Amino acid sequence: MSKTEPRVALVTGASSGIGLVTARALRRDGYRVFGTSRKQMPDAADGITMLVCDVTDDASVQAVVDDVMARTGQIDLLVNNAGIGLLGGAEESSAAQAKAVFDVNVFGVLRMTNAVLPVMRNQRSGRIINLSSIFGLVPAPYNALYASTKHAIEGYSESLDHEVRTQGIRVVLVEPGATRTSFEENLTRPDQPLPFYDSIRDFAEQLMREIIEKGDAPEIVAATVVRAANAAAPKRRYTSGKVAGQVRLMRRFMPESFVDKNLRKFVRLPN
Prior knowledge:
With 271 residues, the chain is an alpha/beta fold. 47% of the residues lie in helices and 13% in strands. Keywords: Oxidoreductase.
């Protein structure tokens, strides 16, 4: 690889929100950026090449990696950002719906990662950044299945980093807090709703809207991704935003009873 060639980044879920803002930040930082979306989108005016990719489909994932390689001959950075949310009582979702959420949020990350690892191993260099969440650090009442996917990504990423580090590859987690995007507008609803949860679910959704409205700008997450991408000796995880940092410290150093009590207070559940 010529030293004059720009680094190549592939960002999943880059049609809007954190993914789009991150793709733009990487482009400004000098990367040649390819973004993915489930449907065909025009290339962005700021130099981001948009490609179609369904992270739940093996062939689609391999095709997008092959396309980027055909155009550039390298992939230096993969940002696994594509994901979906699910709000409701845990028992309101069927096993099939739970599998569908995991298929995007967990196995989508696995598919993308498995597709780029041979490329990066051949290069003897590469970085994979997986977007987790503070919900990968703490319980998330009425977001149990979504939080489960983020806990899974935490364990997968940390373990994989140990496996590939000797190959010149690093795997890094970025853990945002509440972020001002349209995430809450695109939430999946339970496929087996129970009347018992109707009012609770409505309250949980309203609370989420309030929290997101006061949350961090997506640019803060994007800046964290760029920092993690460029670090010569990256940390295993990067929290993004003040609240996420506080949650991580609380989870790490405070007694479990303290964390439990404050979590219930934050989401307005009785102790």
